[in-house]
Each structure stands twice: as C-alpha cells, then as structure tokens.
Amino acid sequence: MNGGRSRDAGEPLLLGVRHHGPGSARAVRAALEASRPRVVLIEGPSEADPLIPLAAAEDMRPPVALLAHAVDEPGRSAFWPLAAFSPEWVALRWALEHGVPARFIDLPATHTLAWERDEEDGEDEDGGDRDGEDGRTDAGAEQDALDEDVRVDPLGVLAGTAGYDDAERWWEDVVEHRGAGKGDALAPFTALEEAMTALRETYGSGGHGRDLIREAHMRLRIREAQREFEDGVAVVCGAWHVPALRRRRGVTADRALLKGLPKVRTDVTWVPWTHRRLSRAGGYGAGIDAPGWYAHLFAAPDRPVERWLTKVAGLLRAEDRTVSPGHVIEAVRLAETLAALRGRPLPGLGEATDAVRAVMCEGSDVPLALVRDRLVVGDVLGEVPDTVPAVPLQRDLERTQRRLRLRPEAAERELDLDLREETGAERSRLLHRLRLLGIDWGRPAVSRSGTGTFRETWRLRWEPELAVRTAEAGVWGTTVPAAATAKAEADAIAARGLADVTALAEHCLLAALHDALPVVMRVLADRAALDTDVAHLAQALPALVRSLRYGDVRGTDTAALAEVAAGLAERVFVGLPPACAGLDADAAEEMRRHVDAVHGALGLLGDAPAARDGRLRARWRTVLRTLSARDTVPGVLRGRAVRLLLDEGELAQDEAARLMGLVLSPGTPPADAAAWIEGFVGGSGGGLLLVHDERLFGLVDRWLTAVPAEAFTDVLPLLRRTFSAYDPGVRRTLGELVRRGPGRHDRADTAVAGVPGFGPGVDEARADAVLPVLRLLLGPDGDGETRGERVEVRR
C-alpha cells in the first residue's frame, strides 16, 4: 500500500510526515488506528528511549523538547521539539495509550554533538580523515559527493512544481484541507512517498550530507525491530527519509558508514518549549511560520476558520477594540469569498488574515501585528514533570521559583519589586544571581510606578534555551547562591579591567553574595592600586558609589567598599588635570563623560562616611577650578568644569558670564569657542540655563551672529549636537527668544522685550505669590507661623 504498491509481508509501515504538521499528525493517528502495529519507531535521538514513559505523565504538556547536552560541556546542546500537533508526539502518545513499545531510531546525540564540536575545531563534517585511513573510504567518498549537492527544500520544490510560490499555502491546500486519508488511512503517505522518491532520484540527499549516515542508523534500528516483532513495525519519520529507508542496502554497508563516528558523553532530558521557538523566526531550522495557527487547526478540525476568527475577536476586544459578532460573521464571509476567488478548497491563514485586516482592524496593520504575535505565533509554554532528569542547580531553581511564586512564562511580563518587603528582596536577589550566572530570565527595566533605590522593575520571559544555560551553570554549584558565589569569584579573578571588577562588586551587592565580596574586594583593591589610567579609575568610581547606596538599601556592610571608593576618588583627583591636557576632540568628549560620571558619583556620596566629612567634595571643586583655568585643557572640558562649579553654587553667575565672555571674545578661534559652549550648556539643564539667564543667552547669541561665514560651517556641527539634545519645549522657548531679538540689545543684562519673567531685577510680587501655596503644602508650625513664610527664596 506504500509507494503505490502493496506492502510485502515483514516490510515496515513507513509513515512519512512533515515535522510539526497538524495534517500529518491526524493522518498518523488514523494510520496507527487502522494498522495497529506491535512497535512504533520514531525519528529522534536513540538515547531518549528511557524518557518515553514520562510522556504519559499528567503534568507533561506540550510543547516540550528533548534536550541533549554534552556532560563535560553543557553549553554544547541540541533540541528535538515536539508540539501537540507534531506527528512524532501523536505517535508517541498513541503507543503509550495502547501499551505498544515506542523507540527512537535516529542517530544518537552523542555523535550529533561531537559533529558540532569537530566543526568548530575545523575538522571535516564526518569527523574522520578524507584519505580513507579511517576505514570508510567508500562511505567517505559518497559523503563527499553528497556534500556537493545543492541544499533543497523538499516542500518548496513540490510547491513550485504545483504552481505555488508559498510552500505553507501549498501544504495547507493539499494536506490540511483534505482530511486525514478518508477511506484509506494510508493514502496520504502513499502520495507523499511517491513525491519524495522522485525528489531523491533528482537531488540525491539534497545537500543534507549527514542524512546518509542518519538513515543508515535508522535502517539498522528498523532491522532490529523487525527481527523482534516481524511484520508489526511502524516507522514515523520525516517524509524526506522514507525513500532511503525503503531502499534495500546491506547491513555491512550501513555499519561501515557508522564506523569511527566521533562521540561525546551525553545526557538527555525533557524540557519545556514554546510555540514562539517553534517558529522559523525564532531561529529553529525545521520550524514553521504559524505554530499558533497549526495548533488551532489540530485542535479544531471542524469549522476552523469560524473558530479562529472568534478567537481573534476575543483578543481584540480584550485590547479595548470594538469588535462585534457582526464583525466575525462578515470576516468569515470575506475569508470564504477570498478562498473561492483564489481557487483554494478552504480559507487558509492568508485569507483569514486579510479578512481580519479589512473587517476587524479597519485596514490597519497595527492591531494585526498583535494578532500575529499573540495568536498566529503565540506564547504557549509547555510543562514537564518533576521526575524528569535534571542537574541539581535546576532542581534548586525550581524549588526557589515555587517558594517565591515566580512561575516561568513564555509571554513577557513586567514585575515591580519593593525591596523593603522580604518577598520583593528575595525575588530581586534571585534574578540578580541568575543574571550573574548567564541565565537571563529577567532583565532590569525602567520602573513606571516610581523611582528610587527601594524599587526595581524587571521584564521576565522564560526561553527554552535557559534550560541549557542552567545546565551549563551547574558546574559552579548545586544551588543558585553557591553557584553564583563561585561564578563571581572566578569572574573577579579573570576580569581584565578595573571597571569590570567594580561592576562585579556592584552585582554582588545586588545579589547579596556576601561570601563572594571578600574575594572581589581583594581583587578590586589590587587592581585599583596598580591601574594608573585615569579613564579606567573614573569609569570604576560610579559603580562603587552605586554599590554603597545599594548596600544601604539592602542592609549590607560596605565599609571596605567605601574605603576603596574614597581612595579611588583621591587618585582620580591627582591624575585628572594632567590627563586632560592636549587631548583631541574625540578624546576630550570621552573625558567629559568621565568627568560627568565622577561628579555624579561624588554627588551620590553626599555626606556619607565614604565622603570623609565632605573633604572629597572640596577636593573635587579644586580640581574643577584647575580644569576651568588651564589653556592646555580642551574647551569642552573647561566649559564643563565652569558649568559644574556653577551648578554647585561655587561660582557666581557674574563670574560664569565673565568667563564665557572671555572665551567668546574675537581672539578665540570659533571652533574652540563652540567646544567651550558645548561643554558649558550641553547635557541636562543646559537649555534651561540659557532660557533663565539672559546674560548668558545674550553672550551666546551675539557671538554666534558674529562668527565669520568661512568659520560658521566648522562650528555648526558642534552647535547642532549641543542644541538638538534639548527638549522640544526648551528649543521652542529659545527660538522665541531669538525671534524677539535679545541679540540686538547693547547690554547682556537688559530685559528681553515682551518676554514675561525676564527683567533687570527681582519681581517681589511674583516671588511672594508662592507663599499661599507653600502654606497649604507645609502647614503651620506650633507657634502658628507658616513654615513657608520662613522659606528663603534664592534670587
């Protein structure tokens, strides 16, 4: 009955399928029910046979995957995903439900993973020599010939032959919409085998060079089953392999192909998988475009379009879009009409999508993108029972997830944590420890519910690859805290730069890895003492200061960290002025960022003990004054130093205006003056400074209008970079000031004509108008006097 002929006695029943095809899955179930085999052989790694009974567990829910990883290199791994609509999963479940033995027959993962290792090392694909010395001369030559073939997509070739430009649409028309072998359960497999036989005769292995060896192993496993069960053998495999498995080839030849294959020690287990990772867009080579749609076709074989469009309507209504039952009815009619116009037996995903866009989304692709993400692809995450084999670290992580009520989910979700609560603090520590181990289940995000050191926001999404990362991290310890501690100590010793060690110290505090801190701090102190690069020291200081703040929030003893931070700051003060001399434009801009970072770090220290009673801040102001006065320091750094002193209240506005006037005098080259302006008014608050200080604004305005035409094109990029960073409102206000002409005034301190709030003096009436509001906000003191009345308004 296969291949257009009756199956001979003792010949295996070969059921060629498309991986993750719901039509193939239904056809496999019908064929197994009709033929009732005594054993079911399935394409999959042979080492996974002991895991087959776990597929019958109540808490095993697809999509799941077989994960094989090298014992000595857990990061070297391979997956065999299975969804509810995968033919292999249907065959596996049918065998378990009917008490029939099931076995995997593909090449063992021990060889597959070794192949990957050898390819990375630059060896040949078959793992052996090409000169015949490995005893596989003929097989090696045949393999070489096959490797020269052009890689082909069998479904793509068949679709093109039938006049289709889309293999998915062709598959839907000829398989998904034709039922599951009505009348003859084996008819779909007969037709597919005939097509694949023709393709194999034309293309050989189609460029899939390893298939020759894989098929040799499968033939040997099939012969073993035939000797044991005679004519009751059913094989479920990719349709591409059926002609090769049907081919009669000697046992000796097959064994010769398998001789001398490389090996690695391998462990195999079940892990959860997701629909998103089943899609081709997720990087899965044998993936499909629409796993959510295929799952729907498998679960709803009757009236699939009507049920699908009802799902879409429910999703859009949940997103506050107006979609009524009438929309669903009209969308169904449109999808059926489109299918008829396009000559298709039934509406497919393309027709359903076009109908949704036209009827439910009003022609917009924005809500349609949501439908594709949530339904066409989907975020379904499978589950595996607790009894599956796993490394101890995985077990500890699962216990911690249950205790903290952090359930892994395939859909991305946002998690807000209050670190003052014990549960929030524990969740934060777990996520930080996992990040240190390279298990990026959660990623820090900007909080929308508030800011401050007592609050954290994370975006969580569990990806199947994290199971590999967990197995890989298992070499560091059997529990998450122990593994993270060992990893932190090793990373500290291996760190290349001082900034890497300071970032690691910050991470250890966030993750509460107290046992790792002594090692990290010792390495940090040693690196800080030996590093003479001021840029490296300036990069390291902000992370140390942030660590001190996190230590305060989490109740961590950071005395040693404070001493290192203070010593680091002192070395920055000494080395910064000479390091800033004679820099080119790019180096000066990079050093400006370091100056800003150090200034912000010292501001965070405030009056903390690490600030040494304010002495560090005083020393820093002296350094800024030195930078502002040295002609050898680039203009962007001198301007920045003046601006920081002004912000600190250490420089009067009159003095700042005087310094700006000197820089913007005709004797200064326009490019140097523009760099000084960029340093002074660039960054946060620079635009508001010009808006509210008419003298500074007038100086810049008059200088800019006086720049010669031949020099203007040179300074324009600097000025554009500076002013384009301002908020739109600030730029608009500056434009109004320019339009009203402050640059035409003779004196920089003259009021801007017609602009409210600008004048030569203080408007006492406007200043006093705020007192009633302060009275309401602050309330009266015990003596009846409003605290707001005693507020000294700085004018």
Automatic annotation (TrEMBL):
PANTHER family: OUTER MEMBRANE LOLAB LIPOPROTEIN INSERTION APPARATUS, PTHR30634:SF14
Record-given protein name: DUF5682 family protein
Region entry Disordered, spans: 114-147
Coiled-coil stretches noted in the UniProt entry, renumbered to this chain: none
Organism name: Streptomyces werraensis
Compositional bias segments (type: Acidic residues): 117-128
Compositional bias ranges of the Basic and acidic residues kind: 129-139
